[in-house]
Task: structure prediction
Amino acid sequence: MSHRPPAWVLAIVAAVYVFLHAPLLVLVVFSFNESKYSVEWTGFTLHWYQRLLERHDIVDGLVRSVAVGLSSTALSTVFGTLMALALARHRFRGRSFVEALLYVPIVTPEIVVGISLLILYVLLGWPLGLTSITIAHVAFNISFVTVVVHARLQGMDGSLEEAAMILGADEITAFWRVTVPQLWPGILSGAMLAFTMSFDDYVITSFVSGTGSQTLPIVVYTMVRKNIEPSINAISTIVLVVTTVMLIVSDRLSRDKPLSAD
Amino acid sequence: MDRKNADAMFEDFLAGRLDRRSFVTRLLALGASATTTAALLEACSGGTTETPKPADGGGGDGDEHAKAKGKGKHKADGDGENVLPETKELSIYNWSDYIAEDVVPEFEKETGIKVTYNTYESNEEMMAKLQVGAGGYDLVVPTGYIVTVLAAQDLLFPLRKKKLTNWANLHPMFLNPSFDPDNKYSVPWLWGTTGIAYRADKVKAPPDSWAVFHDTQYKNKMTQMDDQRDVIGSWLKFRGKSLNSTDKAELDQAKADALQSKALLKAYVSAPVKGQLVSGDVWIAQLWNGDTMQAKAENEQIAYALPKEGAGLWTDSLVIPKSAPNIRNALAFMDFCMRPEIATKIADFTGYGSPNAKATPETPIAYPTDEEMKRLEIQKDLGEALQIWDQIWTEIKAG
Amino acid sequence: MSGGPSVRQRVLGWFHERPTATAWALLAPGGLFLLVFFVAPLVIMFGYSFMERGLYGGVEAGFTLEHYAAFFQPLYLTILLRTVVMAVSTTLICLALGYPVAYTIARAGRFKNALLFLVILPFWTSFLVRTFAMIFLMRDSGLINSLLVKAGLVEEGITMLYTPFAVMAGLVYGFLPFMILPIYSSLEKLDLTLLEAAEILGAPPRARFFRVVLPLSMPGVVAGSLLVFIPALGSFLSSDLLGGAKQILVGNLIQNQFTSARNWPFGSAASFVMMVLVVIAVGIYLRVRDADEAREA
Result:
């Protein structure tokens, strides 16, 4: 690392990480707090974790959110990446128009997306459930993925693919062996944003969910009128711990294999 | 509205290819309001909105419910009305934590019916779903005047009182409400008041008037609810007017009062204010009585007052949407909740008042006295005047 | 394996000769999906914006332009202006904070993935619980104020919660990843040899950054700024929860029209005004960019 950023840059970076994680720390601490309201520390308890065994709605909601999140992320990442490739690698009539249109789903207010999709589903006679929620999430995520992947593709020239093809690879081989590895940080960033937005979406989901398909955000938001039980802090803490452990393990595994593809 | 599409649908409807509800639903979804739809239907069926259907042994509702569920058995009720299919499911759409936790399991155990419990955050969210025709819910719990709105759009199933054997347990005060004459559609669920929660240890004197929100010594220590009906309503009451006023002059006065208090308010915040009452960041808050009692459980210094000028009284009710697939079970659940011991449990758990005269809740709820009761007023739907209210609310917020 | 490759080659060959067809083939899956599940419902809503308001929500048959006319009155234009200012500030702050973070991550070698992960991790918890944690930190007797008072920096707590500062903090928090991730993904591919070349040629650090790094990361900066600015225009929860609902933004206005105000046509009209403004702005930007690219080529 010959180009270490200057100290003031590192100071900003440190401040940003503190800013992002201070609320998380509070959230985790209050998952062990006795009081029903997250206002004061009144004593240590594991009650809110035990309570998850009774609150099937919370656990079921989490499972549904993960399922919807993963499937909508997969679909929107594939769709979005292909669209980004078309926009960045090909010149065609109406390109600017298509690209400008891509920003429409980003600017459309969530409640408009939610109500209009609900009307569409009713017109089509499509039942409301996990499928209708997943479709809605794919619809608003495609644009985000496209924009992020497109930014990565811009300025990334096609010379490597051409070289691969001169060496005898066809388009598909060149795509998998050259383009995708080069694009990977962009695809990963897009997918991470997509999952994040799907996992925490309330407004749109509330309109397109049917009976028995409440995701975690719906369970949480509808608690606002009374009180958001610290069990929500508990389940959020579990999610944080599990994902962190998963990342560390996968990182270890990939490092234990020094002779990987690259 | 898409003229051609609607015409085609209408033909289908006349030819019997679409039953009445699907027709209405699709028409609504296309953009026609309930009133136009009803008028259209009336015009075309010679004055009656009920379209005769060929004998199907079950009547319109029953037939469709059976289709919807696919496993409903037809069985005569013997009450001379349409037959309600017997199903083994029930889908409740309620506010979160607005029921005692063991009520649903107990009902499931007793009846063998599988209950799906769904929650919503606002009346409007629930209403939008019913309006555009999203079905599947058997029981919903709207606030008073929302019942009027749903009923006016023909979205509710008229109750079969014969099935509600515990009806007599209800307190007469909560029956025949202005928002639903004769309780045609609704069973009262819980009720409460919207008054002032305060920290007895911080304020100089207990607030007895909405004027407290004009008191400069409490600047930045007070909040009002984030709801136009509650905020504007409180200032109408302050001037001795009805909280359902549609008079422009009265509303302008309320706006001026609200703007004067906005400068002193910390925030417009509803239920989440409880935490800050407990911590002492907020001393005086417009709040519901039940929520005040929940906060009081965490901090003894929290008290509740009903202003002398009057305040809001609200009732949330159980209703059955017309599109409900399991009406029989919905009625059974209504009846179940009207048992004194169940009603007691629900009131105890939520901290709100039970409309059940035989319920004996232990919660130290701030029940209004008879004298206070006279000063309370129930919210009604504002109809056309809602536009004026919204304009004023936006001006208050933008000011 | 005898017949396979030839079909594959023939298909690929066909596309190879027709670049436009290739482009449309790549656009098709996502495009068709968006057409059915995004454009079609929007068209319905667009129709609604010309209809009469239903007394109980929804719409009544009819045709009117009054909802569009209604939007262009001082009250709503003030709200729109305030919203734009808010969204621009959010974008600038996100850029100022996000760029250094993205730059550092891109240079972090084997810590790259871990640092990236830590940026997104907070968002896998619930928005509301996170926001209530922020309320706990920012309120008058909250953690930040207690620490400030203990450290002797202030006499008594500063009011942070329910101020425009709190709204901004909430918005910046929520949109930071939308700035960091695109910038990171365009910086990550930046060729270090270019920087070394610049260094060898004697360019000072500042020049190396402004002449080499920044221009090459511009696509990421633009994408990030759009991904922050546009959704920030429609945001409403931060101003409600952290701003104490005292200042109304366009997002709140639209939300209200579909809920408590029961005026769907006006809500749609307001949404479409906002959408058209954004699409025009983006369209102009893309025209300029394409013209630049064409000149460079």
Remarks:
- The CA atoms of residues 102 and 143 of chain A lie 6 Å apart.
- Chain A touches chain B through 31 residues (CB under 8 Å).
- Residues 11-45 of chain A form one domain.
- Residues 258-262 of chain A have pLDDT under 50 and may be disordered.
